[in-house]
Amino acid sequence: MKSRLLVIEMHHLGDAVMALPFLRAAGGPGGANVFCRPEIAKFLAAASPDSRVTACAGWTDVFRKLPGLGPRDVAVCAWPDTRAHIAMKRSGAGTRIGFRVAEGNFYGVARPWRRRRLMAGQLATRLLSGPLLTHPLDRPPHGQTHGDNWTQIARTLGREPEFSFPWMPLPPAPPEFREFVDSCRAAGMRVAAVHAGGRLPGKRWPIKKFEALLTTWFPSRNIAVAIIQPPDEPCPRPCAGNQKVFCSPDPIVLAALLARTDGVLSNDSFASHLAAAAGVPVVTVFGSGDPAWFAPHGNARLVVATDACPYRPCVDRCVQPSFVCLESVSIPFVETKLSAMFHDPSEKGNP
């Protein structure tokens, strides 16, 4: 009998995107039972059709819905979270693979509240009887991204993640978008996408800076731009005739839109990970987050981030009067990365 696989990913949409190469490696109908937040369950069900997706409203719901697994079964989680480790053990899975609740595995540990959470997790782990993980893992000393955490788990299972693009089945892009791209390409223009959204304000580079690029950089290089309108957030206005706003659809359709472009400019958000999953180069502006942990797959060289704020990463609890992490990202710095993405040697910006 084939072993069953329980995957716990109770974080956000971008994190779920990074798990897709691992889920593809799981393979086969019902290859994995993924426990995730309700807001990403629909996305994962479409992006990983071989998996069974269980939406959980919170950790209490996780424990209530745990399947009954056995000694031959496997449970995994890429986060050093004691709650996930307890759930994995309570499921009955004989093999439980995850990252130890240790400083080197814990994101943002320099922040006092994160350190308190680390210490609470370590205390809970010590007080519980018996090991929670059968295969405790550690990130390498030089560090790795969250996506690489999934690769480490896959290799512990003797599997290789499936990184061929796209990482998910993609529907056709909406007709209006296809017509825009096709007409621009027929006129000899490359097409970029700009997504200025972000889950929290500390992840959103100012709209006026996006508009500065739309006014000068893109038109001067005859690059057309599809501006994506995020739900419930402002977006840059078109600043040239070959720029057009498209409403942000559900994530799978958004990935299909991005896949038809030549490059993407976005904040540190799920859009940057969707672009990477579609195999499209992406310039990612980081604010409160740490690209050493969350750079989109294969696009670390195109990350834009500064060390102007000594409290970064703050894990979205800003202690400064304003978002220094974003304000310190200059337009010339982003132009340099856009030039690298579009192989334009004429631009020589500075941070």
Note down, in words, how this protein is organized.
This protein is of the alpha/beta class. The protein has helices at 13-18, 20-26, 38-47, 59-65, 82-90, 112-127, 146-156, 175-186, 207-215, 217-220, 251-259, 270-277, 291-294, 324-327, 331-341, and strands at 5-9, 33-36, 52-55, 74-77, 95-99, 135-137, 190-195, 223-229, 243-247, 263-267, 282-285, 303-304. β11 (282-285), α13 and β12 form a beta-alpha-beta unit. It is globular and about 65 Å long. The N and C termini lie far apart (57 Å). The model is unreliable at 346-351 (pLDDT under 50).
Order of helices and strands: EHHEHEHEHEHEHHEHHEEHEHEHEHH
Can you give the helix content as a percent range?
25-40%
Largest sheet: 6 strands, parallel
Q: What is the mean pLDDT?
A: 94
Give me the Rg, rounded.
21 Å
Query: From the 3D coordinates, which CATH architecture of the largest domain would you assign?
Result: 3-Layer(aba) Sandwich
CATH third-level topology of the largest domain: Rossmann fold
Overall number of strands: 12
Tally of distinct domains: 2
CATH superfamily of the largest domain: Glycogen Phosphorylase B
Distance between the termini: 57 Å
**Inertia-based shape:** globular
- Helical stretch count? 15
**Strands side by side in the biggest sheet:** 3-2-1-4-5-6
Structural class: alpha/beta
Given as residue ranges, the uncertain stretches (5+ residues, pLDDT < 50) are 346-351
Task: Tell me what portion of residues adopts beta-strand conformation.
Answer: 15-25%
What is the name of the CATH class of the largest domain? Alpha Beta
